[in-house]
Design goal:
There is one protein chain. By secondary structure, this protein is mainly alpha-helical. The protein contains seven helices and no strands. α3 runs antiparallel to α7. The longest helix has 29 residues. The radius of gyration is 29 Å and the shape is elongated. It starts with a helix and ends with a helix.
């Protein structure tokens, strides 16, 4: 554009009533975050990832244990997979698959891994409390599941606080 056209266009633009009044200086560079986020110190996120990795190892062990029950590597003839009730067989196959899927997702620290793991925790508690005939109604397993669930929720909350939105 040449100079005359630019001047004409500038003259035609309507100025607002407050354009001549100085504006308050706003610092757009300073983030509104916690001191940990500003320094790059993500200690809670690191702890959450460590917790997820430990849970991944435990999920892998539990999943392999259930597969060992299915394939007959552990247990005698009285505890053979074929000799168990259909409900026990169904729950065992369910946990054999979902625990290994959760282990992969937890190790990668993905959101879907945490969701699958939370599903296994809730499933364990429900089966132990509401269907005691399947695995025997072990209240210790329910207590451990609730403690692990609480630990995850606390770590996830603290981790989310140190990251800016």
């Amino acid at each position: 554009m040449n100079k005359d056209i630019r001047q004409t266009m500038a003259a035609r633009m309507v100025r607002g009533a407050n354009d001549d009044v100085p504006r308050d200086q706003v610092n757009l560079v300073t983030p509104m975050t916690s001191p940990d986020a500003e320094s790059g110190d993500n200690t809670w996120t690191g702890r959450l990832v460590l917790f997820l990795r430990v849970m991944a190892v435990l999920s892998m062990i539990k999943g392999l244990y259930h597969w060992a029950e299915i394939t007959g590597f552990i247990g005698g003839e009285d505890r053979a997979f074929e000799a168990q009730t259909t409900q026990w067989q169904t729950a065992t196959v369910y946990f054999a698959v979902i625990e290994l899927v959760a282990a992969v997702g937890l190790w990668l620290a993905t959101p879907w891994g945490a969701v699958v793991w939370l599903t296994t925790i809730v499933s364990t508690a429900v089966i132990e409390l509401m269907f005691p005939a399947i695995y025997g109604g072990n209240l210790f397993a329910v207590l451990v599941a609730l403690v692990l669930l609480g630990a995850y929720l606390i770590l996830a909350w603290l981790s989310a606080r140190e990251r800016p939105p």
